[in-house]
Amino acid sequence: MFEDLKDLLKKCLRLQLEKVHEWHQREPDLKPAKLDAYEDLIDIVLAQHLCNFKLWHVEDKARRTDVSAQVIANCKREIDSLNQKRNDLIEKMDAWLVQRIEPFLPENAPAKYNTETIGSALDRMSILSLKIYHMQEQTQREDVDEEHIARCREKLAILWEQHKDLEQSILELLDEYAQGKKRPKVYFQFKMYNDPGLNPEIYGRKDEN
């Protein structure tokens, strides 16, 4: 079972890299479906990856200085919305994994947890795949000098090394689960800024009116 899960995670990581290229040719819409609609791990991973893809480009736009304040405000709201769904999908990935790993844990597996869940690690791999794509772009520019190209090639090599290291760490964490050294767990982010009942800048304004 754990070897099958490793193969599935490896496939997810390959798809993250492939989809970055594909989506730059034709960017898909982010499905508005409820989280319950995502049942397959690959679907969850790619939906979460698409959130990061869209976040990357909206955040680039938000840093422009030649647009109106309204454009920046719209970007901020879009960023908040995408971040919320991104984090919801990280939790969904972890819930999917916990449900399938728990039945196969040794009975004496201790309540010992990793500092980062596999869902959070998949999120980091998603962002790394975006960095790799855009750094690769920088090495192919014709409007910059050779020094710029050389610096970007060095950074690209480091990004690939980090990608390889993190993939190995994810697979080793699965080994630790299989050996009963640790247990998986869903860690909830409870983002407060998007909740009108938890953000004082929102509920406080209502009290003033």
Radius of gyration: 20 Å
Distance between the termini: 58 Å
Q: Given the structure, what is the number of helices?
A: 6
N-to-C SSE string, H for helix and E for strand? HHHHHH
Count of strand segments: 0
Overall pLDDT score = 90
Summing up helix and strand content along with how strands pair, one would put the structural category as mainly alpha
Instruction: Provide the β-strand percentage band.
Output: under 5%
Low-confidence stretches: none
* Count of structural domains: 1
Largest sheet: number of strands, sense, barrel closure: none
Shape type: globular
- Give the helix proportion (percent range): 55-70%
Short characterization:
The chain is an all-alpha fold and 209 residues long. Helix content is 68%, strand content 0%.
